[in-house]
Design goal:
By secondary structure, this protein is of the alpha/beta class. It has 8 helices and 12 strands. Strand 4, helix 4 and strand 5 form a beta-alpha-beta unit. Helix 2 runs parallel beside helix 3 and helix 6 packs across helix 8. It is elongated, with a radius of gyration of 19 Å. It starts with a strand and ends with a strand. The model has no long low-confidence stretch (mean pLDDT about 90).
Length: about 220
Amino acid sequence: MSKKILLIEDETQMQELIVNYLVNYGYEVTPYINPKDAIEDFKKNKERYDIVILDLMLPEMDGFDVCKTLKQYGDIPIIISSARGDIGNKIHGFEIGADDYLAKPYEPRELVLRIEAVLKRAQKSDRLKISDFTVDESSHEVLLQEYPIELTKVEFEIFVHLLKNHNKVVSREQLVNATSLHEDTKNRTIDMHISNIRQKIGDDSKEAKYIKSVWGIGYKFIG
């Protein structure tokens, strides 16, 4: 099954070159010129894409802000492809979550090699171990001290997002955006899912061992 790439590149000739080259290597590429259109697509279809190729100099929105926004909506590998190749921009790109940074100009073959390397790293990191939990994202499996925990799709998405933000406060809105729930989902719906997760992992909201409520904001995984 071919890997699916979300390409955000406003230079039409460069976009066409990248698309044609990646298609020849068996990738499916969905290109966008406007980053806001790409973000809307990703919000609705984030499970469809395997990796993002992102330019920095874009209309209406800086590429760094696009990178941060995409990472908020889903944990997807991002390769920045930009003429801004100085060390300061590279460091900032990695700081905000980019998985690789490729300075223009470059040979298209190098982009293919970078994509392959990033996807391999992502596959290896599918198995996440934090506190008493082991999570395999590819199989949607959660183990609590080696015992399987049965979570629904949405519960799994919420729980994994909390784990990946260990000791960080996550708002209810962020949890909605990180899942397949609709944007107009009520806060009470998130609270209901959290309550179900707590019950399944043996946690107590009053004396939280794993998921702590943060009044007026959301939740924090503290295990």
